[in-house]
Each structure stands twice: as structure tokens, then as C-alpha cells.
Amino acid sequence: MKIGVVGCGLIGWKRTSVLDKEHPVVIVADVHKEKAEKLANHLGSAQATDDWRDVTTHPGVDAVFVATTHDFLAPVTFSAVQSGKHVLVEKPAARNAGELRPVVEEAKKRKITVKTGFNHRFHPGMQKAKEIIDSGVLGPLLFIRARYGHGGRPGYDREWRANPEISGGGELLDQGMHLIDLSRWFLGELSTAGGSVHTYFWNMPVDDNAFMLLKSPANQVAWLHVSWTEWKNTFSFEIYGRDGKLHIEGLGGSYGVERLYYYKMLPEMGPPETVIYEYPGKDLSWELEFKDFCDAIATGRQPCGNLDDALAALTIVGDLYKGKCV
User: Fold this and answer.
1) Less Cβ around it within 10 Å: N or C end of the chain?
2) Cis peptide before 272, with omega less than 30 degrees from 0?
């Protein structure tokens, strides 16, 4: 495939770093043209522009990476889909569910593959956890408990994420989308049973902490907390089954080495049999997610983490912002 990129910040660079010669980037765009030129020069032969429509309508582009601020995610994706391009759009895919629904409908009507950037599904600890759960050894799943957060940086309250017109929301829409998506991946459909969304520290009109209580039709629960006041970067995801427990912690870098702990319940109960998997190497989630995107296009299947998943997660986010619980 020939690739076009809209958004040449950190994520745009990450997305293009996993490409090889079989998937050349032909054009990149950013509202700050110097950013587009910098990425284009790094890639070697890509065209640079400050108009994202040059990418979505480019006759030589097969697939578009959308890595913009939240306010442009849905419009850029919609335009690319209308032009017949497959799309990998970063989460949350839109500022709210209402903004995303027309994109979902257009992609289905045109039979275009659109993948949402839920790269956490492709971390090795999560992949191994899914393998263990799918094998049945954990028994029926009971509940999930998870925490995810960082502490921001000086001036964080003046960045675009703190502007609701651009971001659509705060930490709930940021890291909260990952925890909601992972919980749905393991437990299935979830609805909002309770929660609290609040700004504790940062001087901003969006939330810096969100607490979520989500529930499945089978009364399985996901108890989730995301925070921009986590002064030591934290990722912790615990999955409880009838016959054991899985705990994934760390994502590499400042979050610590990624590890998966498998606690297997013994017949006599008591201290469990414990197996620890450690993943100290390079973060391959971006590469694995792109491979899934390519395979979904080639086979016609839905990608692992599609627009329906983004819409379901955004619906939960919207319910929490509106204070709706069931």
C-alpha cells in the first residue's frame, strides 16, 4: 500500500517508523508545514503539505494514517473514506459518539477498512493474557480492576488537551479510552453503572481524573481509574477469573518494564502457583497493529479494534460526562 499521513507529531512519526519499502509514504500533512517537511525529509521522498485534503484525495494513496488533534480525527477520516482510502485513525477517533456515527455509517456503506489506534491490545502482555483467557484455563471471567495515569508536565493545562473545543474532554477521553477498550476486549459489551469525573489539580476546564464502574449483561464489572495526577507513571490491569488471575503492569519506558503475572488457583487454594512473563524489549505494538490493519484489508475481515469499538467506548465516555448510569 501507498500511505498518506495527516498529523506529523509524535504519533505520526511512530506510525511511519514501522513501515518498510512495501508501504511507502507518498504524502504527509500537518497544519504546521515545517513539521510535515521535517517528516517528509526523514522519510526521503514524501511530499509535504499543510492541507490535509491533499492527502485524503491524493490519487496515489491507498491508506491514510490520521494522527491529528481530536477535533480533526472524524472529519479527516470521513474525507478519506469518501475517497475510497482505508484508514488507521488514532483513538478516540472523534470527540464524541455523535461525531463518529456518520464516519461508521460511511465506512460500512463503502466497505472501507477503518482501524482505530488501540495499540494497547498489541502489547505482548495483553496478547499473552488474551491467549491464556481464550484457552479457558482461567475459567469464567469475574471482574477487571485497572489503573492508568501520568502526571503531566509544566504547562500541561495550556496544551491542546486542556481545550475542550479541540480535545472534547480530558483524561477520561485520553487514557480512559484505552482502559475501556481493553475491558470490552476481555469482557464484551459494557454499560456505565457508576463513576466520577473530576478536575483535582490542573487549572483546566477538562477532567484530570476519572473513576469508572462498568458492568456487563452477566454482571461482570470493570473498575477503572485514569489520572493526570499520577506522579509516578502507572499502568496496572488485573483480570480475575474463577480459577486464577492475570496482572499486566508496565508499558515500558517511564511506566516500567512490562510484565504479566499469571496466578493459578490450586485445588487446595492458598498461595497460587505463579508464572511471570517479562517483556523488556522494544515496544512492538505499533508494528503489530499495522500488520493487523494490513491483514484486515487483505482478507476483508474487521480489524482488531475497529470503529464500532471506538463508538462503544465513546458512548461510555459520553454517559460518564453526562452523569448517566444504569
Assistant:
1) C
2) no
- What pLDDT does residue 325 have? 67
Please choose, from the candidates 255, 251, 193, the residue with its C-alpha nearest in 3D space to the C-alpha of residue 224.
Answer: 193
Burial 193-220 (b: 16+ CB within 10 A, else e): bebebebeebebebbbbbbbbbbbeeeb
3-class SS of residue 306: strand
Q: What is the DSSP code string of 145-180?
A: EEEEE----TTGGGSGGG-HHHHSSSTTTTHHHHHH
> pLDDT tens, 45-64?
899 999 999 999 999 999 99
pLDDT digit string (tens) for 76-86? 999 999 999 99
Q: What is the three-class DSSP state of 264?
A: strand
pLDDT tops 80 at residue 39: yes
- Output the CA torsion 119→186→211→216 (10° steps): 140
Q: Rounded to an integer, what distance in angstroms lies between the CA atom of residue 124 and that of residue 283?
A: 9
How far is residue 69's CA from residue 74's CA, in Å, rounded to a whole number? 10
DSSP 105-116: HHHHHHT--EEE
In this structure, how many other beta carbons lie within 10 angstroms of the beta carbon of residue 236?
15
pTM to 2 decimal places: 0.96
Show Cβ contacts of residue 126 under 8 Å, excluding neighbours closer than 6 positions. Answer: 120, 182, 237, 248
Which residue intervals of the chain are DSSP H helices? 10-17, 33-43, 53-56, 70-82, 97-110, 124-135, 164-167, 175-187, 285-299, 307-322
